[in-house]
Write a sequence for this structure.
């Protein structure tokens, strides 16, 4: 099992090194980098200060989807208000949830670029928002500071007995399996003209929020995809 820290579009290599150090301090070593502007880089190595191993083993990928392929639960850090409300947690609650979900599969916490944070398209891949409470007059946290807060809470949560894990008949669906489902769902809704591609509004985003709350397992996703296939087959009886 693993708890992964994912950095998206990091612009300053020194921040990557500082994050690696924060992770190492709290016993975490799985780092993924999505399209970093400069990496590897001497500034990252210098700021890592003894956590060079985390940098050497970091996964560098071209998209957030690729970084989350095997994850069953994802938290996305954000301080910005959103047009559509996302489920939100503070760092302590989020750390406890990540530890619990990690009992059944890989989990991740995602942090966006230093200046802009995560985009809504990134948050579409997350189950919850991680919001770190700060003084409203000075709410800007350095990237490494934000990661350090969560890593500390993960360290604390890891020492507390959360109780027995509830067994289910099937494993949770992974991010990759859910993305295949969303693609299938969008295609069928477009075919039956329920989704207007010229004016989609927030339909898919709201449906993602719905299924993130429901947390379907592998069997349930297979049932849903079977239903979509049946709908498609009914529309095309000669195919």
């Amino acid at each position: 099992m693993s708890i992964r820290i994912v950095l998206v579009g990091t612009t300053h290599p020194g921040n990557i090194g500082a994050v690696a150090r924060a992770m190492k301090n709290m016993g975490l070593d799985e780092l993924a980098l999505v399209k970093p502007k400069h990496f590897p880089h001497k500034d990252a190595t210098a700021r890592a200060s003894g956590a060079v191993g985390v940098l050497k083993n970091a996964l560098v990928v071209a998209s957030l989807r690729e970084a989350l392929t095997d994850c069953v639960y994802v938290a996305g850090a954000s301080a910005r208000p959103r047009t559509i409300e996302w489920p939100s947690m503070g760092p302590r609650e989020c750390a406890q949830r990540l530890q619990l979900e990690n009992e059944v599969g890989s989990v991740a916490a995602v942090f966006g670029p230093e200046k802009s944070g995560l985009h809504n398209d990134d948050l579409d891949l997350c189950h919850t928002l991680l919001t770190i409470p700060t003084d409203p007059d000075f709410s800007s946290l350095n990237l490494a500071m934000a990661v350090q807060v969560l890593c500390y809470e993960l360290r604390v949560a890891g020492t507390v007995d959360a109780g027995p894990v509830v067994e289910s008949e099937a494993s949770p669906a992974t991010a990759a399996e859910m993305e295949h489902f969303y693609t299938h769902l969008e295609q069928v809704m477009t075919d039956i003209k329920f989704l207007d591609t010229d004016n989609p509004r927030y339909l898919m985003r709201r449906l993602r929020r719905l299924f993130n709350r429901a947390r379907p397992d592998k069997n349930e996703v297979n049932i849903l995809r079977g239903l979509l296939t049946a709908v498609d087959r009914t529309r095309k009886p000669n195919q």
